[in-house]
């Protein structure tokens, strides 16, 4: 896959009006889709959550967490990137955002796209991160699977990467990133369901 330029990513996100969802009693959260370059290849960071966390333990996730009082989604995503991976980037590295994803567990997740450039040193927080993976964009450029379940009219999205299947919200967010940023296709994710095991 050819390299993607920062200006092209920013342009694709600017041309894509992200859908924001009201909290309506849910908790606001943000995740960072961080573009990094390693050994001449571009990719993103994805983490495996430690098995001792109270929520979604052991799952693959993007660096992220709750939006604190006084923060916006950009600030929260950058703070979580620093807290989880030890990487501190300024707001000038934020390129844009994708659609909010409303989870069954009561969160409204805002995906923020961040430009890191050449991969900086990382210090994963052992209290939160069991494993950090560099996922090349070429490996992310895959077609998702959609599965029907009796509990919902919406299809469950499954993204076949990392020798496993990523479900929503992470799978949905990364699929939209692939569609909007890598292919310029205005794809929405509000119609994609999570598997039942992630509803709590």
TrEMBL record:
UniProt keyword terms in alphabetical order: Hydrolase, Magnesium, Manganese, Metal-binding
Cofactor(s) essential for the protein: Mn(2+); Mg(2+)
GO molecular function: coenzyme A diphosphatase activity; metal ion binding
Coiled-coil positions: none
Domain Nudix hydrolase: 25-163
InterPro entries from the UniProt entry: CoAse, Nudix_hydrolase, NUDIX_hydrolase-like_dom_sf, NUDIX_hydrolase_CS, NUDIX_hydrolase_dom
Record flagged with keyword Hydrolase: yes
Protein family: Belongs to the Nudix hydrolase family.
Protein name, UniProt field: Coenzyme A pyrophosphatase
Organism: Prauserella flavalba
């Amino acid at each position: 896959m050819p390299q993607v330029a920062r200006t092209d990513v920013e342009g694709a996100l600017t041309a894509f009006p992200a859908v924001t969802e009201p909290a309506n009693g849910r908790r606001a959260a943000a995740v960072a889709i961080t573009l990094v370059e390693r050994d001449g290849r571009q990719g993103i960071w994805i983490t495996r959550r430690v098995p001792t966390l109270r929520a979604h333990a052991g799952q693959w996730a993007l660096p992220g967490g709750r939006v604190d009082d006084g923060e916006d989604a950009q600030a929260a995503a950058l703070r979580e990137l620093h807290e989880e991976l030890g990487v501190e980037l300024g707001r000038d590295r934020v390129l844009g955002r994708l659609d909010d994803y409303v989870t069954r567990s009561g969160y409204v997740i805002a995906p923020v796209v961040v430009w890191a450039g050449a991969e900086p040193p990382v210090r994963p927080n052992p209290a939160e991160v069991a494993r950090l993976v560099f996922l090349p964009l070429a490996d992310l450029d895959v077609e998702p699977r959609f599965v029907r379940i009796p509990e919902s009219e919406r299809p469950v999205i499954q993204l076949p990467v990392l020798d496993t299947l990523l479900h929503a919200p992470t799978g949905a967010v990364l699929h939209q990133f692939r569609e909007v940023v890598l292919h310029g296709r205005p794809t929405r994710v509000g119609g994609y369901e999570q598997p039942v095991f992630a509803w709590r």
